[in-house]
Write a structure and sequence with these properties.
The structure is a single chain. The chain is an all-alpha fold and about 70 residues long. The chain has 3 helices and no strands. The protein has 2 domains: about 1-30, no CATH class; about 45-70. The longest helix has 19 residues, at about 50-70. It is flat.
């Protein structure tokens, strides 16, 4: 969804990942979506759902662990 040119917000294309992907370098793009305070001064730490953040961080770690320890 985010890596299509029809995405009105162009999150993937504006990300650091894009310049790797466009040259065929595999990337993983973890993104939890848009919210009303996204990239605004009102996007403060008190709005973080730390239980959800822990799950996401665990997913990223486990994904990296699996990739690093895989034999391709």
């Amino acid at each position: 969804m985010y890596d299509t040119d029809k995405d009105p917000n162009q999150y993937f294309y504006r990300s650091d990942h894009f310049n790797f992907a466009r040259f065929g370098i595999p990337v993983l793009f973890f993104f939890d979506g848009h919210h009303p305070d996204y990239h605004r001064p009102s996007d403060t730490a008190d709005k973080i759902d730390y239980a959800v953040l822990k799950k996401r961080a665990t997913l990223v770690f486990q994904t990296a662990w699996t990739l690093v320890n895989s034999t391709f």
